[in-house]
Amino acid sequence: MDEHWKGAPDLLGSTCSEEWVKVSNDVSLRVLCWTPENETMQKARPLMMVPGWGSVFEGWRPLVTEWATRRPIIYVETREKASARFTKKERVTDFRMEDFIQDMVNVMKHFKLDDSCDLFSSSLGSTILIEALQRDLVDARSSLFVAPNLDLKMPFWPRFFIKTPMPKFFLRFTIKMAVWAVQKKVKEEGQRIRYKRTLLSQNAARIRLSARSLIGYELPHDLSAISVPCGIIAAESDKLHGLENIEKLTKKIPGAVMIAVPSNQYAHEPDVLVDIEGYLASL
User: Fold this and answer.
1) Which of 47, 50, 171, 217 is the S-S candidate for 204 at Cβ 3.0 to 4.6 Å?
2) Residue 184 maps to a domain
3) φ/ψ of residue 77, rounded to 5
């Protein structure tokens, strides 16, 4: 598990540093910062990247490897991940949406990011940034979302296991059950591999606390205050993030554009940069 949560990944054509950003009195987040080796590209607009719930970097390695040669990238691991450092015993109340949003505000302040940067996020990362943008707590030149969630509702059985007290060994068993369920539902091979790796690498107790805290969360119905240009990347074949909800979200955000891609896995590969850069060039 630990190999996913420490060290600065060495990618061809860029250099990386691993930083710990203190976002509250008790929590520090792991942030990976890539700088292109090409001096011209070092002057490009920075990109802040916020991956999904429990997401490990390996799932994004193919995309970041290419992207980090073109612009500076700040990759933020949110507080539910095993990399986060807590100076106290974690509780459910440490994983409120309010905490996730304020973390992003503090990270952007730390790196002095302003409306000249671009944002790129996935799943929970997108949900956090959408609400932060609606509240005008963060600013950017643009924001790209991959399979964002309108809500974090879950079926009965996952809710039952999340809310019921259980020993650590049973938590690990529950995660294996989750792996089995994802393998059954997801048809894209690359997506299945990513989710299996993600689930098996988690701090089980922490991921459960965050699920308890976030379960039932919904984005505000009114998202009309978002003024940053937004592109929403979605794949019809993605069974975990309903296309119907993505279409609803696109209509809620003023001027938002839905960017259709062949698959969820495609959104994690270098080829998606054609779609991303095409959208950014249109702004």
Assistant:
1) 171
2) no
3) -95, 115
Q: What angle do CA 61, 65, 4 make, to 5 degrees?
A: 30
Are 14 and 37 a contacting pair, CB within 8 Å?
A: yes
Residue 215 lies in a domain: no
Query: CB–CB of 114/137 below 8 Å?
Result: no
Could you tell me the two tokens for 8? 């600065």
Whether residue 195 lies inside any domain: the answer is no
Residue 75 has pLDDT above 60, yes or no: yes
CB count within 10 Å of CB 33 equals 19
- Structure tokens belonging to residue 196: 């299996």
Q: CB–CB of 249/134 below 8 Å?
A: no
Which domain does 68 fall in, by range?
2-150+222-281
Higher-pLDDT residue of 137, 265: 137
Domain assignment of residue 193, yes or no: no
Residue found under tokens 């592109």: 231
Give the distance from CA 32 to its chain's centroid. 14
More confident residue, 62 or 160: 62
Predicted TM-score of the model (pTM): 0.87
> What does the pLDDT read at residue 55?
87
- Quick one: average pLDDT of 89-112? 97
For 119, the 3-state DSSP assignment is strand
Instruction: Determine the residue type at 217.
Output: Y
Does residue 216 register a pLDDT over 70? yes
Task: Please give the mean pLDDT across all residues of the chain.
Answer: 87
CATH number where 112 lies: 3.40.50.1820
Q: How many domains does the chain have?
A: 1
Taking CA atoms, 34 is separated from 81, 144, 251, 259, 269, in Å, by: 20, 19, 34, 26, 17
